[in-house]
Amino acid sequence: MEYKKLPMRQRKRIALIAHDNKKKELLEWAYFNRELLAQHELFATGNTGALLEKELGLNIVKLKSGPLGGDQQIGSKIAEGEIDFLIFLWDPLEPQPHDPDVKALLRIAIVWNTPVACNKASADFMISSSLMTGEYLRLIPDY
Prior knowledge:
Helix content is 39%, strand content 22%. By secondary structure, the chain is of the alpha/beta class. It has one domain: Rossmann fold, CATH 3.40.50. The strands form two sheets. The chain has a five-stranded parallel beta sheet with strand order 4-3-2-5-6, with helices on both faces. A two-stranded antiparallel ribbon has the order 1-7. β5 (85-89), α5 and β6 (116-117) form a beta-alpha-beta unit.
């Protein structure tokens, strides 16, 4: 397979998603990392985006609620190269009515070599990485 390089600018485009049982955890994490997040462009699914915008006082590009197509909108933005990385605190122990959408989103992120954090620890590592402060050339499949 051939690959092409997709540059990530210094100002990253970050998607933030959390299932209901993980929203509080994402809000606390985002509040703790508010100054870092403020340096980037933030996207979120509907309810999560509204909560984050209120809690952080930052502009969030809000898409539809996850079960109503928001997960798929994020996936589309990943496929189009419009999202640089995904923080998705999903709840593996709670059945989700839109589970196929969740799996599709995660699959798209992997296909397009998009960094994904699915828990607070991986989100901490990603946001504190030295790669956050500069440009990065991400290799993506050249389909």
